[in-house]
Amino acid sequence: MSRQIIFTDKAARPPATYSQAVKAAGLVFVSGTAPTNPATGTITGSTVQEQTRQCLANIRAILEAAGSSLDRIVSATVVLADEEDFGGMNEEWLRWFPTDPPARQGAKLPTRIPGLRVSIAAIAEA
User: Fold this and answer.
1) Residue 1 pLDDT > 80, yes or no?
2) Which candidate, 38, 34, 17, 56, places its Cα nearest to that of 114?
3) Is there a contact between 74 and 124 (Cβ–Cβ < 8 Å)?
């Protein structure tokens, strides 16, 4: 099976330890994506809604670089720093996926990163 590493400068740059995404087996596997502004490299927003919006904008750019799109996401994992942000994250999530949303699971961030409230990973059809 061949795989293709996906990178775009229109989304947040990942650490050297992983790729933005990998395209393989007819799917695009998007790594956990922080709410980082691709131009400045800093976390965008102080609310979970603003940060969820930036995560999804980054994921959209990554998927477009892979020849896919948000409407082709089949599964997503949302990782929150604080479980009390779940409602606010859902509020923004519904703006992006008002109908037929992808399957989703959640987790709690295992470490504290200053200012980071949410990270989102996704799997989409290529």
Assistant:
1) no
2) 34
3) yes
Residue written as tokens 């987790």?
107
Rg (C-alpha) for the chain, rounded Å, is: 14
Burial state string for 56-69 with b = 16 or more CB within 10 A and e = fewer than 16: bbbbbbbbebbebe
Considering the domain 3-125, what is its CATH architecture? 2-Layer Sandwich (3.30)
- Rounded CA-CA distance 69/13 in Å is 19
Q: Domain coordinates of the chain in residue numbers? A: 3-125
Q: For the chain, how far is it from start to end, CA to CA, in angstroms?
A: 15
Q: pTM, whole model, 2 decimals?
A: 0.96
Contact yes or no for 61/8 (Cβ under 8 A): yes
pLDDT digits (tens, 9 = 90+) for 112-122: 899 999 999 99
Bridge partners of residue 104, in order along the sequence = 76
